[in-house]
Amino acid sequence: MFSSIQSAKRKVITFGDDGEQVSRPTNTSTAAESSSSSSSSSSSVRKHNDTQNATTKPNGSKIVPDKVLSSSSSTTAVSSISSTTEETGQRLSKKQKRQLQHQQDSRPKKLINKEPTTEAMTQKAKDLKKHRNSLPIFTARDIIIKEVKENACVVIVGETGSGKTTQIPQYLLEAGLAAHGTISVTQPRRVAAINLARRVAEEVGTPLGQKVGYSIRFDDTSSKDSLIKYMTDGIMLRELLSDRLLLRYSVIILDEAHERTLRTDILFGMVKGIQKQRQELIDRGRKDIQPLKIVIMSATLDAEKFSEYFYGAKIMYISGRQFPVKILNTVEPQSDYVDSALVTAFQIHQDEAPGDILIFLTGQEEIENMEKLIEEYATDLPPTVGKLIPCPIFAAQDTSTQQKIFEPAPHGTRKVILATNIAETSITIPNIRYVIDTGCHKSRGYNAKIGIESLLVEPISKSSARQRMGRAGREAPGLCFRLYTEDSFDQLEEDAIPEIKRCNLESAILSLKASGIDDVTRFDFMDRPSKSGLLRSLEHLYALEALDDEGKLTEIGTKMAAFPVDPPYAKVLLQSEKMECTKEAIEIISLLSVDTIFSAPSSKREEANEARQKFTSLDGDHLTLLNTLRAYESVKGDRDWCRENFINSRHMRHVLDVRKQLIQFAERSGMDPKKTCGHDLEIVLKCFLAGFFQNTALLQPDGTYKSILGGLTVSVHPSSSLFGKKREAIMYDELVFTTKHFVRGVSALESNWLSQAAPKYFGQRHA
Ligand SMILES: Nc1ncnc2c1ncn2[C@@H]1O[C@H](COP(=O)(O)OP(=O)(O)OP(=O)(O)O)[C@@H](O)[C@H]1O
C-alpha cells in the first residue's frame, strides 16, 4: 500500500493523443471522440465508429433505416455542447467557477426528493422533454416505431448514450404498443434496472411503480398498471415459471445483448420460442392472445449474427452520441494498473475541470484497497485543492449502498467512483466526466471436466472498453483515460466469450427444465454450450435429486427452481426443513451472500485475526459465521463494536437484508423459517453437505487435501478459520483457481457423513 502512495506522489502517467505524447494534465488537446464530433479527431474509437458505419451497412436482406442518424441532430447537440466545454474548462473565471459550484450544489441531495412545487415540476417536465428531444435517437423515433410495428423482431444498434434504453420503451408506449400488455426491458444488472426505471418514471411524469416500475430479486416496485417494466434477466426467467407464454408482455426488449450473460442467452431462446408459440395460437384462431414483439438492443453487438438467430430480424443502426468523449491511451504499458489508476485519479483531481471520476477495477478487494489508498493520500492534498471522496460499488453490496454513487458530492469536493464492470453498461451516473479504464476485469470460467470454477483477472474486450468510455459522455463532454496503449486496445478481442460457453450451467438448466423444456440438449441456443458442460450440470442436478433417472424434473427440483438461490443452496434450504435447522441454514446462506463479513486492513491484520478468534468455531467457517452473527445481534449491530472487532457493518446489514428476504420466501413456500436445531450445530453441517457433497476433499497422508470430485490438490484459503489446520475431511462453499486451487468457506466433516448425505452419488462412485 505504502509503495503505491509513494509512487502516487511522484509518478506522472503519460497519455498519448493521436500519436502525440500528452502528459495529462496539460490538457492541450481539443479533438473530441464521437462519431458526431469534429472531423479532426482520429482516435481508436473514432476509427471504430467510422469503420462500423462503413462495414455494417445492410446487405440486401436486412433493413437499415433509410436515415442513419447522427447527421444534423447530433452535430447540433455536439456543437452546442462545445461551448459548455469552454465554460466548464480550465479557462473558467473565478466567478464562473463559483456559479458552477453553485449549480452543483443545487443538484438534488437525495435520490428521493421532497415533493417539488407545481411550478418547479412544470419546469422540470419541460427540461426533461427538451432533453429527450435533444437525444440523437429522437430523430429516429418514427422509423423505430414503424419498424417495431411492422416486424416481429428488430435488432437496434446504437451508440452508448444515444438514448436507446430510456427512449425506445417510451416511444413504443406512446405508439400504443402497450395496449395489450406491458413493455418489458431486461437488464443484466439490478443497479441498471432500478436507475433506468427511476429515470424513465421521471420522464414519463408518474411516480415510480405506476406507469413505470422495476423488478429485481427481492424488490418489485412494478404494479399491475405498469406499462414499462425494467427487470433483471433473472426475474424474467423466474416469471416464465408462472406465465409460460409471458402473456402479460406485449414487447420484450432484451437490452445490452452483447453482454451475453448466461441468463440473457437462455432468454433469447425462450422468447424466440414463445413468440412462435403465440403466433401459432393466433393463427389457430385464439382471439385472447396477442403477438409478441422482440427488440434486441446494444451499443456494440454483432447485429448480423443476432438477426440471423431471430429469423432474419430487421437491423437498425443509430449513430451519434449526445456528447463527445475524448480517449487518451497511455504511451507505455502499465505494469501496475492499480497504482496507475491511483496516480491518474489524483492527476485529474488536481489539474482538470470539475466533474466526477469513474475508475473501473476488477473486484471488491481491489476496490476496498483503493478506497483506503485514496483516503490516505487525499489527506496530503494541499488545502487549496478540494477533497477527493472515494465511493465504491460492486455486486456484493446491498442495493441501498449501491445507490450512494448517484448522490452528489458535497460542495467543493470531487467524487471518485470505484467500480467493477457493474457500472459498465446502461447506467448514467450524474456528473461523471472522467473515466479511468484499467483494461481489466475478473472473468469467471468453468472447467466442466473437473467441475472447477476459476476467477481470473483478464483483459476486457473492445466492446467493454467502448461501454466504459461511454460512461463519460452522458451529461457533458468527457475524457476517458485508458491505462493501456493503443496497440493493446487493437489486440483486444472484439467481444467477450458468451458466459454459456464458460460457466457452470446448473441454474440455467434448472430454469429451462422448470419452464417445460425437458430436452435441454435440443434447446435453441444462440451459441451451444459444450457437451461436457451440459452433461456435468445434468449429472450434478441428478445427484442433488432435482432430476430423476430419466432427466425429468422431480418435485424437489421444481421446488429448488423456485428458490432465488443457486441449486446447491436451494437443496440445503429444502433439506433444512427435514433436519429442523431452517433458521440456521437461512442465516448461514445469508452470511455467505457477501464476500466476507470481516474486515482485515493490511496494516492491522494481526489485531483483526486476534479479534476474530472470539468467534472462531473449531468446526470451521460456517459455524464461525453463525457465531459472529449471534454476537453482532447480541450488541444490536453496534458500530463501535463492529469497528473494535473488525466486522464490516455494511456487509452485516446486507446479510440481515438477505436473511429477511429468505425468511419471507421460505414462509411463502410453506416452510417454517424458525425451525432450529438449537445447540446441536453438527446438524447444520450435515444439512449443508446435502447441497455441497461434491465440494468436499479428504486429507492425504502427506497433509494436503484432495478434492473428491476431480482429485485435485486444493489449499484452504488463508481467510478461512481452518487455514493451516488438518481435518480428516472438509466441505467448502467454493473452489476457485486464482494462483492455485483455493477452497473458501470451509468446514470440517467426518468422512462417514458423506455417504449418508448423498447415498446416490457416493453409492455410484464406490460401486
Ligand atoms: N438517471 C439519469 N440521470 C440523468 N440523465 C440520464 C439518466 N439516465 C439517462 N440519462 C440521459 O439520457 C441519455 C441516454 O441514456 P440511455 O440510457 O437511454 O442511453 P443508451 O443509448 O441506452 O446508452 P447505453 O448503451 O450506454 O446504455 C444519457 O446519456 C443521459 O444524458
UniProtKB/TrEMBL annotation:
Superkingdom to which the source organism belongs: Eukaryota
Record field: compositional bias (Low complexity): 34-44, 70-85
Segments for region (Disordered): 1-128
A Gene Ontology BP annotation from the UniProt entry: positive regulation of transcription by RNA polymerase I
Signal peptide (from-to): none
Keyword ATP-binding: yes
Enzyme Commission number: 3.6.4.13
TM spans (from-to): none
Domain Helicase ATP-binding, chain residue ranges per copy: 145-319
One GO CC annotation: nucleolus
Pfam family, one: OB_NTP_bind
Alphabetical UniProt keywords: ATP-binding, Helicase, Hydrolase, mRNA processing, mRNA splicing, Nucleotide-binding
Compositional bias segments (type: Polar residues): 23-33
Domain Helicase C-terminal: 341-516
GO molecular function: ATP binding; double-stranded RNA binding; hydrolase activity; RNA helicase activity
Chemical reaction(s) catalysed: ATP + H2O = ADP + phosphate + H(+)
Listed Basic and acidic residues bias regions: 104-117
Name of this chain's protein: RNA helicase
Gene: DHR2
